[in-house]
Structure formats: structure tokens, C-alpha cells
Amino acid sequence: MNFSYSEEQQMLAETVMRWLAAETVVQRGFSPERWGELAELGLLGLNVDEDHGGLGATPVETLIVMQEFGRALFGQPFVSTAVVGAALLGNIGSAAQRDDMLPRIVNGSLRVALATLEPGARFDLADISTTAVRQGQSYVLNGRKAVVLHGDSAHVLIVCARTSGGQRDQDGLTLFLVDATAAGVTVRGSPTLDGQRAAEISLADVQVPLDSVLGEIGSGYVPLEWAVDRGIAALCAEAVGAMEKLMELTAEHLRTRKQFGQPIGRFQALQHRLADMQIAVEQARSMALQAAALIEHPQRNERRKALSAAKAMIGRSGHFVGQQAVQLHGGMGMTAELAVGNYFKRLTCIDMTWGNTDHHVELYGDLL
Amino acid sequence: MDLRESPETQTFRAEVAGFVAARLPPDIRAKVLGFLRIERQDYVRWQRILNERGWGAPSWPREQGGTGWNARQRSLFEEECFVAGAPRQMPFGLSMVGPVLQAFGSEHQQKRFLPRILTMEDWWCQGYSEPGAGSDLASLTTRAERQDDVYIVNGQKTWTSFAHWANWIFCLVRTRASGKPQEGISFLLIDMTSPGVRVKPIRTLDEGADVNEVFLDDVAVPMANLVGEENRGWTIAKFLLGHERTTIAGIGTCKRLLVRLKELARSEPKRGRPLIEDPRFRDRIVKVEIDVRAHEWSLMRASSLEQAGKSIGAEASILKIRGSEIQQELSQLLMECAGPYAIPHLPEALNAEFAGETADGHGLNALAAQYLDLRKVSIYGGTNEVQKNLIARALLGSQP
Ligand SMILES: Cc1cc2nc3c(=O)[nH]c(=O)nc-3n(C[C@H](O)[C@H](O)[C@H](O)COP(=O)(O)OP(=O)(O)OC[C@H]3O[C@@H](n4cnc5c(N)ncnc54)[C@H](O)[C@@H]3O)c2cc1C
Fold first, then answer.
1. Which numbered atom of ligand 1 lies nearest the CA of B92?
2. CA distances from A174 to A200, A210, B146 (A)
3. Which residues, judged by CB distance below 6 Å to any ligand atom, belong to the binding site of ligand 1?
4. Is B78 a catalytic residue?
5. How far apart are CA B194 and CA B191, in angstroms?
6. Tell me: domain A222-367, CATH 1.20.140.10, correct?
7. Helices (H), chain B
8. CB-CB: which of B135, B203, B268 is closest to A335?
9. What are the residues whose beta carbons fall under 8 Å from the beta carbon of A118, sequence distance 6 or more?
10. What is the CATH number of domain B124-231?
């Protein structure tokens, strides 16, 4: 094992860092300009194979990029499209689907969003009541999808629907590629706590052709879970970047803010708190690396445990570091003007995406 | 020691609960329990309803229009009101400047201001903190210079809660530059409609704007608005901190959040069952409920000391720390109840008039904002770190 970046990886990190350093305001919502730049930099192809115009990079490259995104609070739908979407299509897409969609993901003209979770299902990927019923040469979809991240800027929705089995069965789920503008699809977008976007999506008698089935009928759960794990690995790396940045901001505040005639960093209580935060960040970083290392593990349980462990740890450390960064900034920490609050919000949302700490502790427990 | 609750306590509790159930306007109740934004007029309306009943000032003596209740009654009252969804009674007049005027104010000041606090004809705000003087309050630099029969005040206050709704502000100002910093501070009442007073809102994490910067430029303040003696303001500030220290325990909010948490955990599903049946979440609720119990009994002990005329010091700091930590834990659990719906957030939907639809459609929208907003409780009123310094000092002496 080697934990230092190769020359190329170092360059990748620096490229992204320099590009994002030019960003002065946090973007709210989707930005076509930023998306175009992502494509130009080739980043949208990180998780696409070379045959389809991508870089075919390893999970480490995604980790590197996501850390920089975390540091810069970059809020574009990169994970939905270029991590989860690209990986899922590459993994189980038919030749035709891959040839059609992957190059368009790479060149920035196609965005996809994962429409899986449902109202009342919390984080359970199998708790699906959306139905897909075969009717001649098409499927007809009905149901509702909750908190579809970046759902209102996506062209294609990857919808998980039930083709057989009971409400919470893992068997009987099928993935469909659904045009977001298809008749019967209603997308109600809303801002998110952290300045990104999400959508409530309803599917009312949406007709899709047979070739929009992604993967095999009735066996969508396993690849879906695999793809969400990719997303989780990316979020963990992003969270580490965000926490790193919070540490820098907080340390700087402790060095410069004076009370009682001295920098508040002189108070040992605050030194120890800062140290506790750093301990949490280092544990989180180790877990993000572990997630990247085991994301391609051939045994599902080994992969799942690593990913749930990472997500559970990152949820915990994200809350702690975010809360304490606010606390150590005093009243300033409560303002919308300071970046501290924005990082705290992002970390909060990361915990609440694809399963919070409790959820992943539970999943891990099932595999003990 | 007799650990039985007196029968009168039960009667008292029932009386308060009955009154609140009958008189709390439903629209206000809905806002409070829904974690929506509460308007100035809502606070005023509820205060007037309480005042008509003779309960406008739970902590004031009867002769000043208060209830004359003991500390235990006051915390029961707070709890019943909060759990039923009443807005808090604004502390700036009732628990801060009011008691100060009762103890240090001139007869004229008392007559002029106290009745208007009960009816909320005046809305007071607290002008202590400054950009450079937060935890180290004594380093404040807003100065008041005598010119004939007025003070000319110059400086800046910050984090001033509800200054945008207030018509009066009580300020700590520097009236003498030399000597120990604590010895050159005075306590001044400033009419916010005076020329030279400017209020600028500060937007907070939760997209709210309850706090403000207050700029004071050559504001002329009549000498008659000085409370107590010049340069003795620090004593008043300390009195104010020491007054009613048990209210900072936030027991009302703790109880309200706990009730809401259990309601929500019963109504939000997980795998087709109520979330509260999930052993992991259930245990977290139980743990915080145990914390609330311990906190409540600590508060009762402190109240009984206060009632016996003993001063509480470190106990008050412990109440402040535990109360804020419990509120924060509860707010996190409430947010986690929402699951993925913690993520979408429409700030405008925190206004009761909002007519659109939130992502979840049934009231989860405010929970994450509440989680963010409650980070403030470990910062204001003396940060938790400063409170811990006080506890340690009480144990070790000032120079261990
Ligand atoms: C929502 C809100 C409402 C408020 N309302 C009002 C109001 O109405 N009127 C008013 O006057 N003020 C108000 N305040 C201000 C509040 O009292 C101050 O924020 C608080 O006293 C802390 O001061 P500060 O923000 O300057 O932080 P600082 O004092 O700069 O503290 C920064 C950090 O350093 C720590 N620290 C400081 N000194 C020490 C020490 N000696 N040992 C260990 N740690 C230390 C603090 O605990 C904190 O974590 C409000 C604040 C907030 C957030």
C-alpha cells in the first residue's frame, strides 16, 4: 500500500483545486457554466471507460476530486451523474445504452439522477412501492420518488420500480431509464439545506419502451446497492474535504480572534477541542480511504461493511466537527455570511444522504 | 428532606394547563409547534393574554404586577406553557431590564417603564455584546460622554436579538476610559427612535434574521436614562446575570422538543412501522429523556436553594450547559426523524403565510433549520466554555 499521491494524482488534485479557487461565490442550484467546465476538464469521464471516451480511472481519482469538491463546497450534480450514474450504466447497461449515454455523460450533454427512495421509506433502498407493469412492448410506471438529488436538472432518471415481489423485498426490483420529460413524469424541484437541489418526482402511467430497462428484470437491487455504495464513497471523500476546510477556518479563527487580551487559541479548553476535532477528521479520512479501497471488493459483504462503516463514522464526525466549528466561532459561527455555516450544512446533508449513521450501523449489524 | 411534591403543585399545574388550553390562540400554537417563524405581534398578543390573567410577570413580586410565584411554580408554569405550544415570554423586559429597574432604577424609571413591560407596549432588547467584546464583555468600547444634560453615545452593539422589533435598548456603555475596565461601565436606557440609532439585520444559518447589529452614532441620551450610578454598570450587569439564573435551564424548550420528538417518531414510518419502534432510535430517545429527567431534578434542587435565599453559582452554569446540550441533542433527533426529507429546505415555508408546498408536504421542512438554529443556545448567555470556566473556578478557587 502507498498512501501518497502519484504525480498524475497530484496534478489532478491541483488542477481541480486551481479551477475551484477561481470560484468566489457558492453556486446555488445547477450551473451550466460549471458543468461545461467539468466536461472540459475531463472530470465527467472519471468513471467512464476509455472505450466510451472516459478516463477509466480508479476510485482513488474520484476520492481526490471529491475531497477538493468538499473543500470548495462545490455543489453541482457530479456524484449523481458522473459517479453513480456513470458507474451504474457502465456496469449493467446494454451495449446500446452504454454507447448512447456514456459519451454524452463525458461531454457534459447528459445528466442523470437516481430516483430510488420513496416517501415513507427513509433510507431503505428496497422499500419500493412504485410499480412497473408490462403492457405489450412497453412498461407502465406508477409511483412517487422522494428527495431525488438534482432531479430537476437531470435529463434521464434512473427509476427503481417493482416488477414483482412484496413491498420491501430485495427481489423483484427493476431499474428503468426514464426520460425526465416523458408524459406522466412530474418533477417538483426544491432547494436543499446546503444550496443544492432535489426533486419530488411522481410517475403517473409513464410508458417506457422495453429497451429502457437497465440491467435485468427483477434483479435491480444488487447493482443499485453497488452504485449507491460508489456514491457513498464519493460523499465520504467530499466530507473529509469539507472537514479539512473547517479545521483550517477554525484554527485561523483561534489564532486571530482575541478576547481577554489574547488570541482565544491560547485557552487550553479550545486547544483540546480543536484536537478532538482533528482526531475525528483523521478517523474520517481513514474511513474514506478504506471505502475507496474496498469499493471494488469482489465480496459484497466485505464491500458493504466497509462502506457502511465509513458512512457511519463520517456522519458522526461530520456533526461533531461542524457543530464545534460553529461553537468555536462564537456568534460569528451562527451567521450565514461566514463559510463555516455552509460547510456545517453540507456535512449535515451528507449524513442525511443515502443513510445516516444509525442506518449504516444497522446495515453493518446485519452483516456482523 | 421530603421528596414528595405538594398537592398544591398538582393543582397549580392543572390550573396553568387549563388556562393555556383555553386561551392560547390556535394560530400561534400552530406556529410554535410547527417550528415556524413567530411574529412580533404573536409575542405581544400572548403576553397580553397572560397579563390580563395576572400572569404577565411570573418572576416579579406582586406589588410590581408580578405573580409572586416561587421558583418551582415558575418552572412548572414555563413547562406547561411551552409544552402546550405557547411562545416564550420575551426575557429582555421581564427577566432582564425589569428586575434591574426594580433593584436599581429611580422611582420615575420604575413608574415609566415597568407597566409597559407587562403589556409589551415597549419591546426591549439587550445591548451588551460588541464585535470586540463577546465573552470578554468588560472590554466593551461603546462610549457615552456627558454633554450638558445628555450623554452622547457612540459605538456598535452586535448580536442584538430582536433589535429590529424593539423601541428600547438597554446598553452597557463606557463612561470612563481609565482604571479597571469593569469600573468604567454604565447601564443606559436608549430610545431606539432617537436620531443616530441604526439597526442592521444579521442573516443567520437558518436563514432567519432575529439578530442585528446596532450602530450608535452621536445618539443623545437624557441623563435621566442612566440606571443606578455612573460607572457602576458592571454591578448591575452581574446582578442581571445572577437574577433568575434558573430560567436559563431551558426546561420548557427541553420538554416541548421531547414531546414533539416522541410524536414525530410515532408518526414517521420506518419499514412500515413507527420509527419509535426501531430499537436504535428508541434508545436514543430514551437516553435523552433520561437526561431531561436528571436536568429537571437538578433544576428543582437549584430552585429550592434559590427559594431558601441561597445564591446559586456553579449550579446555574451546570443548568445552562445541560439545558443547551439537551436542546441540541433533541433538535438533532428531530431532524433525523425526517430521514432524507431533512435535505430539501424552503426557508420561505417557515412563514405561516406560506401557501406553497414543501417537499415532504407535512411539516418536516422546519426540522433541519431548527437543528442549525439551536446551535446558538451553547453560544449566547455566556458560552458553554465560559460556563465551564466558572464551574472549575468554583471548585478550584480563582488561583489554584
Ligand atoms: C443567536 C444569538 C443571540 C444573541 N443575542 C444577544 C443579545 O440580544 N444581546 C447581546 O448583548 N448579545 C447577544 N448575543 C451575543 C452572545 O452573548 C455572544 O455571542 C457570546 O457572549 C459569545 O461572544 P462572541 O460571539 O464574541 O464569541 P467569543 O467570545 O469570541 O468566543 C469564541 C469562542 O471562544 C471561546 N472562549 C472565549 N473566551 C474563552 C475562555 N476564557 N476560555 C475558553 N473559551 C473561551 C468561546 O466559548 C467561543 O467558543 C447573542 C448571540 C447569538 C448567537
1. 8
2. 20, 12, 80
3. A 257, 259-260, 264, 267, 269-270, 327-328, 330-331, 334; B 125-129, 134-135, 159-161, 211, 376, 379-380, 383, 385-386, 389
4. no
5. 6
6. yes
7. 7-23, 26-33, 40-52, 71-83, 91, 98-104, 107-118, 233-242, 251-267, 279-307, 314-337, 365-373, 384-396
8. B203
9. A127, A128, A129, A130, A143, A144, A145, A146
10. 2.40.110.10
Q: Which residue has the cell 420513496?
A: A118
Its ipTM equals 0.96
What residue segments make up the domains of chain A, in order of their start?
7-110, 113-218, 222-367
Tell the CATH topology of A113-218: Butyryl-CoA Dehydrogenase, subunit A; domain 2 (2.40.110)
3-class DSSP state for residue B200? strand
Using the structure block, give the residue that is written with the C-alpha cell 414555563.
B78
**Contacting residues of B for A127, CB less than 8 Å apart:** 271-272
Say if CB B380 and CB B211 are below 8 A apart. no
Q: How far is CA B302 from CA B89, B206, B246, in A?
A: 22, 33, 7
Nearest CA in chain A to B369: A193
Give the three-class secondary structure for A247: helix
A124 touches chain B (CB under 8 A): yes
Q: Which residues have a Cβ under 8 Å from the Cβ of B297 and sit 6 or more positions away?
A: none
Per CATH, which fold does B249-396 belong to? Butyryl-CoA Dehydrogenase, subunit A; domain 3 (1.20.140)
* Cell numbers standing for residue A52: 466510451
Report CA torsion sign: A278, A281, A285, A290: positive
Q: Which residues of A touch B369 (CB under 8 A)?
A: 193
Chain position carrying cell 411562545: B87
Instruction: Give the pLDDT of chain B (400 residues) as one tens digit per residue.
Output: 888 888 888 899 999 999 999 999 999 999 999 999 999 999 999 999 999 999 999 999 999 999 999 888 998 999 999 999 999 999 999 999 999 999 999 999 999 999 999 999 999 999 999 999 999 999 999 999 999 999 999 999 999 999 999 999 999 999 999 999 999 999 999 999 999 999 999 999 988 889 999 999 999 999 999 999 999 999 999 888 776 666 788 999 999 999 999 999 999 999 999 999 999 999 999 999 999 999 999 999 988 888 788 877 889 999 999 999 999 999 999 999 999 999 999 999 999 999 999 999 888 999 999 999 999 999 999 999 999 999 999 999 977 6
Asked if B340 lies within 8 A of A146 by C-beta distance, the reply is: yes
- Write down the residue that cell numbers 411551552 correspond to: B82
**Residue B60, C-alpha cell as written in the block:** 416579579
Task: Quote the CA–CA distance of B44 and B37 in Å, as a whole number.
Answer: 14
B345:A334 CB<8 A: no
Domain A7-110: assigned CATH number: 1.10.540.10
Task: Please list the residue range(s) of chain B that carry CATH number 2.40.110.10.
Answer: 124-231
Instruction: Please tell me whether residue A15 adopts helix, strand or coil conformation.
Output: helix
Q: Which residue has its alpha carbon closest to ligand 1 atom 51?
A: B380
The beta-carbon neighbor of A358 closest among B280, B344, B388 is B280
Q: DSSP E strands: which ranges in A184-271?
A: 185-191, 197-209, 213-214, 258-259, 262-263
Residue whose cell numbers read 456627558: B146
Task: Find out whether B38 and B99 touch, Cβ atoms under 8 Å.
Answer: no
Per-residue DSSP letters for A75-106? Answer: -STHIIIIIIIHHHHHHH--HHHHHHHHHHHH
| Residue B229 · residue B398 · CB < 8 Å | no
Cα separation of B166 and B61, whole Å? 25
Q: Residue B272: its chain A contacts at CB < 8 A?
A: 127, 167-168
CB-CB neighbors (< 8 A) of A315 in chain B: none
Among residues B80, B244, B315, B329, the one annotated as catalytic is: B244
Residues 6-45 of A with CB under 8 A from B: none
